[in-house]
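Below sits my pick:
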Amino acid sequence: MRAALALAEQAEEAGEVPVGAVVVKNGAIIGRGYNCPISAADPTAHAEVMALRDASRNLGNYRLVGCTLYVTLEPCIMCVGAIFHARIARLVYGAADPKTGACGSVIDLTAELRLNHHMQITRGILAEEGSGKLKQFFEKRRKARATGA
């Protein structure tokens, strides 16, 4: 999760919402990603999707069987779909997302028994650090808007 938090820092430095993600297989990071929908002009360029794309390129396969995805923020509906299609075995996330979280905060797609893939989930790992980054980011943004900066 520390590697994902470092990637969230990179996202923030790039002016993006600070969310980072890594894919791990057999104890090694095989995929990295951070939020970049603004700079990439791509609404799908969430940290999870970027990490899945990187891992898939590195493995030469879109199926990431036996892998764990670590992400600093609870995935949204789109990202949970991508995680399912990649066949991630385990999802570990930090902060809950009360606005778009699809792992229990708003909706829980991961508990939907009718879907054909299920994974282990660990919630709340280094949640305060991840949510703290997000709160600071949005506070700075609100202040900048209020002052016209």
About this structure: Strands lie at 20-25, 28-34, 68-73, 90-95, 120-122. The first helix runs from residue 2 to 13. DSSP finds five helices and five strands in the chain. The domain at 1-147 is CATH 3.40.140.10 (Cytidine Deaminase; domain 2).
